[in-house]
Amino acid sequence: MTYCVGLQLDRGLVFLADTRTNAGVDNISTYRKLFTWEVPGERVMCLMTAGNLATTQSVVSLLNERDLAASERTSSLLTVPSMYQAARIVGDTLKGVINETRGDNGSTAKTFGATIILGGQIGGSAPRLFMIYPEGNFIEAQADTPFFQIGETKYGRPILVRAYDPAMDFATAVKLLMVSFDSTIRANLSVGTPLDLQVVEKDALRLGFSRRIEETDPDWRMISDGWSDALRSAFHSLPDVTL
């Protein structure tokens, strides 16, 4: 399992992904699940993955190969004219990998399933954020649904729903995501540090601030410990129940 979140803000996009993979309690590894592409001044994209690791690695490898082999007759993430077309390429690639793998051994599609968050901006259009399903179809973030989660989503969702504000600055957004991840990590051992952070500023058309957040990172420890203290304080401040 994993946990990834993409936030759409007035200022741009923020992505945060964990790196833990879990094939049993005695087989836990670290793999990057956040990938980026850019043509500075023209386009920038960020992709996060959850699901079968072999599937997601194949998808990313095929997307990179497509970039290298792009021509006038074939499109790639570095040549498509819109983020919508980029999402279609990712969706078709994901669906193709799943169907090809399933066809080899007769297993169900769910065994090799994966879900992807894709976001970014191409010059001349606004930043866009998509969630792409194993079937290859996708949905786009809107004002009513301004963020996407994939993987182990339920523990970190309440704070996002309560505290998200599209006008928040990047520092506040990262703090919000850290709290969401801290809640998830404390509740589920299949999600864990280090975390990969990527900021995409609106109209910059290049990768913004990025960072790998380790368990010992001072900002992470401050947010994690402070959130725990704040919750305990809030709980004890509530009135007692009459029995």
Explain briefly what this protein structure is.
With 243 residues, the protein is of the alpha+beta class. The protein has helices at residues 53-68, 83-105, 157-163, 170-187, 218-237; strands at residues 3-9, 12-18, 20-22, 28-30, 34-39, 43-51, 114-122, 128-132, 138-140, 147-151, 195-201, 210-213.
Care to describe what's here?
The protein has 243 residues and is α+β, with helices and mostly antiparallel strands. It has a single domain, classed as Aminohydrolase, N-terminal nucleophile (Ntn) domain (Glutamine Phosphoribosylpyrophosphate, subunit 1, domain 1, 4-Layer Sandwich), CATH 3.60.20.10. It is built from 5 helices and 12 strands. It has helices at 53-68, 83-105, 157-163, 170-187, 218-237, and strands at residues 3-9, 12-18, 20-22, 28-30, 34-39, 43-51, 114-122, 128-132, 138-140, 147-151, 195-201, 210-213. The strands form 3 sheets. It has a 5-stranded antiparallel β-sheet with strand order 10-1-2-11-12, with helices on one face. A 5-stranded antiparallel β-sheet has the order 5-6-7-8-9, with helices on one face. Strand 8 and strand 9 (138-140) form a beta hairpin. Helix 1 (53-68) crosses helix 2, helix 3 packs antiparallel against helix 4 and helix 4 (170-187) packs across helix 5. The longest helix is centred in the middle third of the chain and has 23 residues, at 83-105. It is globular.
